[in-house]
């Protein structure tokens, strides 16, 4: 972030030392955070080695929803709470970004723009482009972001189907979305948009097998987590025209190297993990993160605990921790 003014303001009454650092390696995190009471984290690697080096950490707050850069199991074993910020309003930004990528991919916007810059004024170089109205969008994951995208594409007269084994049928019916299997979704969808967290069950959920059964005219959109898609298989699919194109805000290894094979292709659009971003969403994210840190430092349990099974161990380490009204939900 450009500054940590929100964090300074919220934590100022506690008279704590706020250390700001950009850590990219385990060694950097250990050197700077070893004696910290609370960690506020964005992309730093919080591995088992890091966690076992922490001498008095109460909890670690991840700016955002995903916690895939934190070894949650190791934190739980130490009685360290892992907290995320799932409700900072970024479902607006991410669903907007997914829709923007979808439209760019379907209408070949970036490809045509590049051709114009090269002196080519001819729409035919982008053939074929098909009408959006009456097409089918397949959502892999029907959480808050998936639901919001489904509502937005409704005005474009796009039929929405979704795969999410963790959602009840009533949720699908409420959103007017057809519940389908993953295989059915991949076979029927003109556009496939991914909205699932990264975990053992979703790692490489979309691989060579899945890409091969998609329509040759399909567009794949990923604004979730890069490793949900096997990037080597995706490169193969794009190069061999198994699918039309891919529009990605996330990739398997970030940041993307300059010599990544995906960058050699003209049927892929990549943005730098920016779908969550707006000035408003980042301000809310920083404020909520700092408020959770304040709760921990004041001896309160935070609101959004990822590893609820660590609470008992945490309370044994910090027996004076106050149980807020929402504690019973843990």
TrEMBL record:
InterPro entries per the UniProt record, alphabetical: CtBP, D-iso_2-hydroxyacid_DH_PdxB, D-isomer_2_OHA_DH_cat_dom, D-isomer_DH_CS, D-isomer_DH_NAD-bd, NAD(P)-bd_dom_sf
SUPFAM superfamilies in the cross-refs: Formate/glycerate dehydrogenase catalytic domain-like (SSF52283), NAD(P)-binding Rossmann-fold domains (SSF51735)
Gene3D superfamilies in the cross-refs: NAD(P)-binding Rossmann-like Domain
Any Pfam family the entry gives: 2-Hacid_dh
Keywords of the record: NAD, Oxidoreductase
Gene Ontology molecular-function annotations: NAD binding; oxidoreductase activity, acting on the CH-OH group of donors, NAD or NADP as acceptor; transcription corepressor activity
Domain D-isomer specific 2-hydroxyacid dehydrogenase catalytic: 9-307
Superkingdom of source: Bacteria
Domain D-isomer specific 2-hydroxyacid dehydrogenase NAD-binding: from-to ranges: 99-275
Regions that span the bilayer: none
Record protein name field: C-terminal binding protein
């Amino acid at each position: 972030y450009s500054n940590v003014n929100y964090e300074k303001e919220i934590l100022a009454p506690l008279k704590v030392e706020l250390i700001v650092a950009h850590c990219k390696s385990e060694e950097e995190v250990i050197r700077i955070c070893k004696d910290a009471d609370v960690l506020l984290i964005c992309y730093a690697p919080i591995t088992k080695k890091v966690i076992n080096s922490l001498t008095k950490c109460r909890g670690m707050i991840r700016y955002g929803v995903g916690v895939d850069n934190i070894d949650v199991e190791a934190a739980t074993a130490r009685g360290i709470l892992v907290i995320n910020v799932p409700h900072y309003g970024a479902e607006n930004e991410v669903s907007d970004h997914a829709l923007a990528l979808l439209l760019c991919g379907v209408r070949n916007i970036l490809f045509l723009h590049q051709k114009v810059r090269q002196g080519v004024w001819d729409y035919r170089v982008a053939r074929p482009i098909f009408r959006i109205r009456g097409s089918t969008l397949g959502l892999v994951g029907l959480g808050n972001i998936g639901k919001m995208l489904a509502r937005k594409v409704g005005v474009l007269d796009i039929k929405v189907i979704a795969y999410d084994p963790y959602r009840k049928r009533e949720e699908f019916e409420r959103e007017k979305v057809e519940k389908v299997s993953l295989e059915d979704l991949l076979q029927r969808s003109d556009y496939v948009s991914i909205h699932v967290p990264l975990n053992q069950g979703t790692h490489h959920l979309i691989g060579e097998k899945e890409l091969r059964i998609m329509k040759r005219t399909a567009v794949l959109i990923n604004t979730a987590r890069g490793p949900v898609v096997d990037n080597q298989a995706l490169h193969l699919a794009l190069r061999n025209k198994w699918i039309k194109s891919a529009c990605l805000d996330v990739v398997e290894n970030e940041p993307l190297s300059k010599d990544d094979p995906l960058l050699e292709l003209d049927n892929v659009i990549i943005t730098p993990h920016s779908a969550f971003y707006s000035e408003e969403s980042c301000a809310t994210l920083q404020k909520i993160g700092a408020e959770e840190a304040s709760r921990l430092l004041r001896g309160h349990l935070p609101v959004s605990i990822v590893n609820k099974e660590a609470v008992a161990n945490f309370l044994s380490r910090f027996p004076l921790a106050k149980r807020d009204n929402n504690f019973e939900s843990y």
